[in-house]
Design a protein that fits this description.
This protein is an all-alpha fold and 189 residues long. 74% of the residues lie in helices and 0% in strands. The chain is built from 6 helices and no strands. It has helices at residues 9-27, 36-60, 64-87, 93-113, 119-139, 143-172. The longest helix is centred in the C-terminal third of the chain and has 30 residues, at 143-172. It is globular.
Amino acid sequence: MREKLADPTPFAFAGFAFVLWMLSMINAGWFTMKSMDLVVVLAVTFGGTALAVSGLLEFVRGNTFNTVLFMSFGAFWWSLALYELYFKGKVPEAFTGWYLALWGVFALYMWIASFKTNPSIQLFLLALWITFGLLAIGAWGATPLTYIGGYTGLITAVLGFYYSAATLINDTSGHEVVPSGRHLQQSEA
């Protein structure tokens, strides 16, 4: 008999939401770019590394959706941290806009792939691709959209925290939740 493996999903969503909240406060204009150093530290640790480890654990569990989701966004947080440390100010804003837009494309098709998963994940990914879109357009010159993208990022972070907490609380109380990364079986629907 196989032992139950721990679910890394609450950890991954907590890490993503935590870093996203901190970054979104800057994008929303609550704090200046001087605060970005702390975001970089969090992006490497709780965002990048924690998500990548969670993705590897999901791979072991056979969960393709969460493997792709967590490994990819682990890479996103690492790339953002490295960009901030080494390339900020050396890359044209319009090119940064394309970076954000392509992450938005990724979030869009992950959202589509999530249609038969937990509705909380669907909302999270919907808000995330909208956030990336707004930030991309902001980087292309429509600066007010960067602020709006900051606020949608805050909403996305709240959705991530909610899913993390709900999954963890349900798991520790013995309740079953709708799976996060596998299609619902007929008996589960």
